[in-house]
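Sequence only, no structure available. Ideas?
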Amino acid sequence: MRRATPRSAARVPLAPGRLLFHPHLAYLAAPAGSCPALVGVFSNFGDPARAVECTFLAEDGSRLAKVDHPKLYFGTHDGYVLPLSHGATGSPLSESREPQPVILTQTVETGLRVMRERPEARVWVVLNLRNASRLPFDMPQISNVSFVFEKGLSTDEQAAVRALILRTGKPFAVWSAAAFLRSCQPAEV
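Reply:
I predicted one. C-alpha cells follow.
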C-alpha cells in the first residue's frame, strides 16, 4: 500500500467505520485524472477516523484501476478496523446481545466477497495480522474468529495472532481467500 497526501481524498465525507463509493475520486499521481473508488474509513469502534484507504477501480468497477498505485493509504492503521458487516443482528458490536462469528480480511475487496458468502457473520477489514492482534476479541459478543488472507503469511505471524486470540478462549481459524470463496473449508497452515 502506498502512503499519499490527503489532497487525493479531498471532499469525501469521512465517517468512521464506513465504506464509501466515490464515482470520480481525483487521482493525483501518474496518470493524473479521476477514477471510481472505494474509500474505507478505519477507526477503533466509533472513535474518530484514524486511517483512510482509497481503492481506485476501473471504470466498470470490475477490477483495480490501471494506475501506478491503485491503493492509496492515509494515516496510521495500527489496531484499527473497517467493519463491513454487522452480521445477523444488523447492529453494531457494542449493541449486540448474542455472540456472532467475526471474519477478518486483509482487503476491502475480499471483505465484500466474504460478506456475500457469509451474511450471518461480522466482516471486518484489518489489513494485516498485526492489526488483528490488537482487536478486542475477548468481548462476549464474539463467538469465534476467522482470518481470510490474500497474501502469504509467515509462520511467526500466524502463530502470534493465533496465540493471542486463543488466549481469549475463542475458536480461531486461518483461511486462504481462494479456499474460503471456493469451498468455505479451512486452509492448511
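Residues 1-10 have pLDDT under 50 and may be disordered.
Hope that gets you unstuck.
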